[in-house]
Amino acid sequence: MATGRTHRPATRSRGIPEATVARLPLYLRALTALSERSVPTVSSEELAAAAGVNSAKLRKDFSYLGSYGTRGVGYDVEYLVYQISRELGLTQDWPVVIVGIGNLGAALANYGGFASRGFRVAALIDADPSMAGKPVAGIPVQHTDDLEKIIDENGVSIGVIATPAGAAQQVCDRLVAAGVTSILNFAPTVLSVPDGVDVRKVDLSIELQILAFHEQRKAGEEASPDGSGPAAAPKDTSGQGPDGDVPAVMPA
Amino acid sequence: MATGRTHRPATRSRGIPEATVARLPLYLRALTALSERSVPTVSSEELAAAAGVNSAKLRKDFSYLGSYGTRGVGYDVEYLVYQISRELGLTQDWPVVIVGIGNLGAALANYGGFASRGFRVAALIDADPSMAGKPVAGIPVQHTDDLEKIIDENGVSIGVIATPAGAAQQVCDRLVAAGVTSILNFAPTVLSVPDGVDVRKVDLSIELQILAFHEQRKAGEEASPDGSGPAAAPKDTSGQGPDGDVPAVMPA
DNA sequence: ATGTCTTTGTGAACGCGTGCACAAAGATGG
DNA sequence: CCATCTTTGTGCACGCGTTCACAAAGACAT
Ligand SMILES: NC(=O)c1ccc[n+]([C@@H]2O[C@H](COP(=O)([O-])OP(=O)(O)OC[C@H]3O[C@@H](n4cnc5c(N)ncnc54)[C@H](O)[C@@H]3O)[C@@H](O)[C@H]2O)c1
Ligand SMILES: NC(=O)c1ccc[n+]([C@@H]2O[C@H](COP(=O)([O-])OP(=O)(O)OC[C@H]3O[C@@H](n4cnc5c(N)ncnc54)[C@H](O)[C@@H]3O)[C@@H](O)[C@H]2O)c1
Description:
Number of domains of chain A: 2
Low-confidence stretches of chain A: 1-13, 224-252
Structural class of chain A: alpha/beta
Bound molecules: nicotinamide-adenine-dinucleotide
Helix content of chain A: 25-40%
CATH architecture of the largest domain in chain A: 3-Layer(aba) Sandwich
Shape of chain A: globular
Number of helices of chain A: 8
Oligomer: homodimer
């Protein structure tokens, strides 16, 4: 049983701040688009606009990688694409397994964005015996029994979990035991992993709830200057006013 | 054409920090699980462990909502579920539209996690005429032509974009013009929206690239203590060493 | 009623991330 | 070769988020 910590200790990796690492893929995407249009160089201002960030932030981010720009000119697009790709480890080929080939897992398997950047779907794994052998996105689904063998034979170090929440921790434990050290989790659960294993989660429900919070705030802040606002306010299920304070009734 | 800024100005909403808001759904999930097991009260230590965060952080988070705990005892589970739900706006019913009913959009439509928390799929919208009327997850797909009408009639303020990247900005503009003020974007593009509109993005490709960065770091840090490591190292496409410095060749 | 024991709520310190503003670097033109 | 102009790279200040550590609050037993 994995008893590791869950929150990552913000390991200042190689002098490159975590926040910068998270933005590098954004820059890379913008640069790739420029590259396809054969744009030779780009200024920090232009690239920042394309990536949706502050230009000073972008320059500082790049300064962690080295001095790759030319003052008075900007950055060489091709060269920067290469440097960021190398920094992110995308010059390597990363075999990935997807576990749980349901609605979401199948969509992921069909997603073209994988192969475009050094990621290769090495195998699809599901616990349902009736799915074994059936091809999804051209790849035959394999049974969970062979999980360890699949990980080992393909040299997989990145796993994607798209099983129901109840199975996620168990699947995670098996992946980690088999040698996987990076996990992308789509199941709405907190995964416990040993030190040295990275977990990132994608949680649709959380994102929606955050949006709902801000949405409620927007609706509540302007008391009611106009009845026919940008969108009709959703009906309130509770009798609670939108800006009301504590109901002042403590159950216990 | 929407010419707004993209990065949110970190609007310190109602005194509640953004980082806290992002964790509230996590607490709520853990509390809901406790509630279903009829656990009456929970300490900050226990709940923090369940949510995978530091207990001091959790207490400080709750302190922004008010003093809902009892010293020496902990927090009343049911009461806290209600308070957080109310704070997040989940006591209301939020109609949501999904635009782009392909692989991903269909998976999202089939996802049960929507209805579980106040979110209701009000409509599915796609540009493909051959899909119009066809039911997905029990809901008939409607054509993009009727987008504005659908938003208006259902009082939708939250939209989910699952179209190809090329169509995302255009769809976004139409949603915003029709009154949507919160957008969850699955397409790999930076969306420009006017002030007052919130955008959150879910980007599989970025998450994988961040994992790859750390994976590369792990593999490179221990020089090579063992050839048969936890997982065989993926083959290097370039001739570049994993820890190599700049190639010292500047194209331009 | 009083003491003990548990757990909350928060003051304070610290570190990270962000953005301003500017000096230095280098291209470009005369 | 020199002047000018553009754009990078970064020192600095500030604010947010995290964590420690502890006093205060309240439950519970006697
Ligand atoms: N569908 C979505 O849009 C969506 C969105 C966000 C999150 N999620 C989450 O993603 C996960 C999958 O969602 P889904 O809609 O694809 O569900 P699903 O039920 O369609 O698919 C789940 C799949 O996992 C397989 N499975 C179950 N236990 C397994 C195990 N122990 N090992 C291997 N495979 C196993 C099942 O056979 C099934 O094929 C869920 O946790 C869900 O909450 C889904
Ligand atoms: N499939 C995945 O797992 C996955 C993962 C991450 C990101 N994404 C992104 O999500 C988006 C959708 O992915 P997908 O695999 O479902 O693609 P898809 O091609 O299967 O589906 C796209 C759907 O959008 C519709 N569409 C196109 N233009 C439209 C428009 N202007 N208005 C309304 N609908 C329109 C198409 O008719 C199609 O049904 C893409 O941007 C993709 O990059 C997908």
